[in-house]
Design brief:
CATH class of the largest domain: Alpha Beta
Distance between the termini: 39 Å
Number of domains: 3
Order of helices and strands: HHEHHEEEEEHEEEEHEHEEEHHHEHHHEH
Organism: Lacisediminihabitans profunda
Helix content: 40-55%
CATH superfamily of the largest domain: ATPase, nucleotide binding domain
Low-confidence stretches: 15-27
Protein name: ROK family protein
Pfam family, one: ROK
Number of helices: 14
Radius of gyration: 22 Å
Mean pLDDT: 86
Strand content: 15-25%
Largest sheet: 5 strands, mixed
Strand order of the largest sheet: 6-5-4-7-11
Family: Belongs to the ROK (NagC/XylR) family.
Number of strands: 16
């Protein structure tokens, strides 16, 4: 990146920081709320909630008649017809034809979400080698992909790479863009400010507002592990209270409790990568401490350690899994979690490392409560953050997930 370009990017950051205030972003994804509306609410909040309720019913159940939607939601048929008419006009609901004539009377007209009417852009900043992006439809299906090598860039150079990727995704879209979702490493506040991402050299970076100005569409930015657990919730058939550990450039976790995403009072819930594991020291971490979980588990660290001692591969993976189990055991015990999900390179995580993690958690918690704990790899593979980024936008703009 040229010196002039770096100055321009830095000026954009400074200007955006100056505009950043302690405000809620209208339509932003809100951590802590129940993700899937299922009941009616008070009259003063009814219309927006009931719109989301109708959309959520079709999003999860698929094709339904107006009467089906009324029965499932508890709304009156008049209310459903009114909302459906509005949503059809906006392109968010489509009529798909009539139900077969096996039932008596006039066949009902079936409805569905307009799953291809809008597109969502997703960006994943969690990988240590490249920033990845995709154009998705409302079902989370990836339609187009783009990737920009990271090549060790940090600070303003890394931000310029995000801009480059966002511009390419906009050019690849073929339908109206509902919004752009970004999964970023580090601590991210509800306004999309990356408060701290040591591996990218970012601090107090107003990424959401910078990207919103750049692409001219709604933007949602959240921690990459939080994006990943939202994808698991919407597309991975995960149920109950769960924790997802995301291993990539760094290590982070997302927590879903009682149907709501847990963010914490300082937006750092799940920042387990910078918990020091044990008292025996260890490698220096990007945060300045030594022996953080990230130094044992982050993909670049593990790969480098195995390259230096290929004959010790199994022992290295087992020790990394043990360290992860040491960190997870008190969390499982405190929150009574039923499921732990690992997301990252399967060649590193699946097998020896996962088994060592499972054994360590069970050794360090009460067997009668953790004996049936599920620890598994995600079913969504490398696209989990991209699909989670789409979920954030769909949730923020339509109220469904």
């Amino acid at each position: 990146m040229s010196e002039a370009g770096a100055r321009d990017t830095a000026a954009e950051v400074d200007a955006a920081r100056g505009r950043q205030a302690a405000r809620r972003v209208p339509g932003a994804f809100v951590a802590g709320r129940v993700l899937r509306p299922s009941t009616k609410v008070l009259p003063e909040h009814a219309r927006g909630h009931n719109r989301a309720l109708v959309l959520q019913t079709l999003f999860t159940a698929g094709q339904q008649s107006r009467a089906d939607v009324a029965r499932r939601t508890g709304l009156t048929r008049v209310t459903v017809s009114d909302l459906v008419g509005e949503l059809i006009a906006e392109g968010l609901i489509v009529e798909t034809g009539q139900r077969d004539g096996s039932r008596p009377g006039k066949p009902a007209t079936l409805l569905d979400i307009g799953r291809t009417a809008f597109q969502v852009l997703g960006i994943d900043l969690s990988d240590h080698s490249a920033f990845r992006g995709a154009v998705l439809d409302l079902t989370g299906t990836i339609l187009e992909r783009a990737e920009v090598p990271l090549a060790g860039r940090v600070g303003d150079d890394a931000l310029a790479t995000v801009f480059e990727l966002a511009d390419e995704l906009v050019s690849l879209s073929t339908r109206p863009i509902l919004g752009l979702g970004v999964g970023s490493p580090g601590v991210v506040d509800p306004d999309g400010v990356v408060l701290e991402a040591p591996n990218l050299g970012w601090a107090d970076l107003p990424l959401r507002s910078l990207l919103a100005e750049r692409v001219g569409r709604p933007v949602v930015v959240a921690n990459d592990a939080n994006a990943a657990i939202l994808a698991e919730h919407s597309f991975g058939n995960a149920e109950g209270d769960m924790m997802l550990v995301k291993v990539g450039h760094g290590v982070g976790a997302g927590l879903l409790l009682g149907g709501s995403l847990l963010s914490g009072g300082r937006f750092a819930a799940g920042e387990i990568g910078h918990v020091v594991v044990g008292t025996d020291g260890g490698e220096e971490c990007s945060c300045g401490k030594s022996g953080c979980l990230e130094t044992w588990l982050a993909a670049p660290r593990l790969e480098a350690r195995i390259r230096r001692a290929p004959g010790q591969r199994e022992a290295i993976l087992r020790e990394a899994g043990r360290r992860l189990g040491i960190v997870l055991a008190p969390i499982v015990g405190a929150l009574d979690l039923s499921e732990l999900i690992l997301s990252g390179p399967p060649a590193l995580l699946d097998g020896t490392l996962a088994e060592a993690t499972r054994e360590t958690v069970r050794e360090r918690t009460m067997a009668e409560f953790s004996g049936d704990l599920v620890l598994r790899m995600t079913t969504l593979g490398d696209d989990i953050v991209l699909r989670g980024a789409a979920v954030m936008v769909i949730s923020a703009e339509l109220g469904v997930s």
